[in-house]
Amino acid sequence: MYERFAHEYASHAEDSAYNALYDRPAMLGLAGDVRGRAVFDAACGPGFYARELLERGARVTGCDVSPTFVDMARARCEGLADLRVHDLAEPLTWVPDDSVDLVLFALALHYIDDRVGLLREFRRILTSHGAVVLSTEHPFMHWVRLGGSYFTQVQVEESLDPDRDWPIRAWRRPLTAVCADFREAGFVIEELLEPRPVPEMAHRYPEDHAQLERLPAFIAFRLLPV
């Protein structure tokens, strides 16, 4: 979906309120100390996480379905990460069992049709002491934006940004259904986080800061295999 507007999105996300000052701080906080650890960046996008993880001392592999994103991520990581074009609808056959200490999966779960299947792949590649950290759109925000029943489970087509022609297709699902997928795939929730905007956002993006202090846009989890 992102391929047609990959360069525009990358320029936007590098320093945007919701990406740079909301999701990334929350996810990197959940990831914790990654020095010397093997991290798989699933749906790596243009490589903002991969680069940061490398700088924090991780060994990084990852993938994205967009060839443009993967090219951008490889360049951003200066060849230090093993990043490949791969559709997460397909098994991660090139990643060995029990080879990854951490899977990072930022803002992409809601695009996946077979979420349990993918989560089981993450569980397969994780070491016994590994973890998954992931973020997704907060189910409550779907209801705020789209109305109807909060408990609706349906695929929705809309623009990623209301002011741009960035069409995406994502699943609208209640929190109960999201958490049920984790359990079915063999994970327990170690931590659930409804992020708060970092203080810097109040000065640079005051309207976004005020909105996010009222309503959470995203929700993030740290999952452990059982």
Automatic annotation (TrEMBL):
Protein's UniProt keywords contain Methyltransferase: yes
Gene3D superfamilies hit by this protein: Vaccinia Virus protein VP39 (3.40.50.150)
InterPro entries (UniProt xref): Methyltransf_11 (IPR013216), Methyltransf_Superfamily (IPR050508), SAM-dependent_MTases_sf (IPR029063)
An annotated Gene Ontology molecular function: S-adenosylmethionine-dependent methyltransferase activity
Methyltransferase type domain mapped to chain residues: 41-133
Highest taxon in the source lineage: Bacteria
SUPFAM superfamilies cross-referenced by the UniProt entry: S-adenosyl-L-methionine-dependent methyltransferases
UniProt keywords, alphabetically: Methyltransferase, Transferase
Biological process (GO), any one: methylation
Protein name: Methyltransferase family protein
